């Protein structure tokens, strides 16, 4: 075979390979180790198998908490993320470009205010003047506001100490703070391992929804990728809910927690992504309005401005 005939034979193959490489998409998912369902998906490789036929690879990017994840989404480090109620509001107020693409059902028991077992603090009202640790801008920020409000108190009546979960637990256990407002599985861990006493969880105060967010241009251009993501998420959620013990056994070592702690945490969540409804968006708007009234965000925002305008994208969540 001459060089010319060899090139004539291989050129179409090289072109096809080049086009395939160019067409391949990477879905970069921002997640927190505490997000048990995503941790399970990452471990199982189920999403990679689901997306491979579409020419889509997956990159998992870990963040310590929701606010940091939103920063990653805003600077283009990730395409999709999963966070609690409050981070999107702070991010939208800061001008971040993202859209809400789905949500997990309410889980009010999966976040709570806790104190050391021998604390003199017996009720939320007793927190006046006390130091309370929390991750600023996270879902528990709203829980703290509502728990205090129920007792006629404002966040200015306490001393907020803003710390990420690992640092907050250390401060809590050495007595540097009087209380900690935190979410699962960190909540279940401190309850079981440190005998922390629960002052109040989210029941009757907050919904504690969790949201799937996407960088706006990615969401608009790749609705088929988001649809495949949600199909896999729903399949893994169905398995998890039917197999709590087995799921906990897989997730526990990845989160660095005992199996019984993870199982308790899983029991307090209702997994399974759903399309955003008008009622859920309205609840999110209430949180945004509350944060603005308290001066926690500098300007009012409209949650509706961060809802998908892409019909295909809206259908993907269904």
Automatic annotation (TrEMBL):
InterPro entries: ABC_SsuA_sub-bd (IPR010067), Solute-binding_3/MltF_N (IPR001638). Keywords: Signal, Transport. PANTHER family: ALIPHATIC SULFONATES-BINDING PROTEIN-RELATED. Part of a binding-protein-dependent transport system for aliphatic sulfonates. Putative binding protein. Residues 1-23 form the signal peptide. GO terms for cellular component: membrane. Belongs to the bacterial solute-binding protein SsuA/TauA family. It comes from Roseateles puraquae. One of its GO terms (molecular function) is ATPase-coupled transmembrane transporter activity. This is Putative aliphatic sulfonates-binding protein. Residues 26-247 form the Solute-binding protein family 3/N-terminal domain. It comes from the Bacteria.
């Amino acid at each position: 075979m001459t060089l010319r005939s060899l090139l004539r034979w291989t050129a179409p193959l090289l072109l096809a390979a080049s086009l395939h490489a160019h067409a391949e998409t990477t879905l970069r998912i921002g997640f927190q180790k505490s997000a048990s369902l995503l941790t399970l998906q990452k471990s199982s490789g189920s999403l990679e198998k689901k997306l491979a036929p579409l020419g889509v690879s997956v990159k998992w990017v870990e963040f310590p908490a929701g606010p940091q994840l939103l920063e990653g989404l805003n600077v283009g480090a990730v395409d999709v993320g999963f966070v609690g109620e409050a981070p999107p509001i702070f991010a939208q107020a800061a001008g971040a470009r993202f859209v809400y693409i789905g949500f997990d059902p309410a889980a009010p028991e999966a976040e709570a205010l806790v104190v050391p077992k021998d604390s003199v603090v017996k009720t939320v009202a007793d927190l006046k003047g006390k130091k309370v640790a929390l991750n600023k801008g996270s879902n528990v920020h709203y829980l703290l506001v509502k728990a205090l409000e129920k007792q006629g108190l404002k966040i200015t009546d306490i001393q907020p100490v803003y710390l990420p979960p690992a640092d907050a637990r250390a401060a809590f256990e050495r007595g540097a703070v009087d209380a900690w407002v935190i979410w699962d599985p960190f909540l279940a861990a401190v309850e079981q391992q440190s005998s922390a006493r629960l002052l109040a969880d989210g029941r009757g105060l907050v919904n504690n929804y969790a949201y799937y967010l996407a960088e706006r241009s990615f969401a608009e251009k790749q609705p088929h990728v988001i649809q495949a993501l949600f199909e896999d998420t729903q399949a893994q959620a169905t398995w998890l809910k039917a197999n709590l013990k087995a799921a906990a056994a897989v997730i526990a070592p990845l989160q660095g927690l005992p199996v019984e702690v993870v199982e308790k945490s899983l029991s307090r969540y209702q997994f399974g992504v759903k399309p955003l409804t008008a009622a859920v968006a309205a609840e999110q708007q209430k949180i945004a309005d509350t944060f603005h009234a308290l001066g926690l965000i500098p300007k009012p925002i409209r949650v509706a401005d961060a809802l998908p305008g892409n019909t295909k994208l809206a259908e993907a969540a269904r």
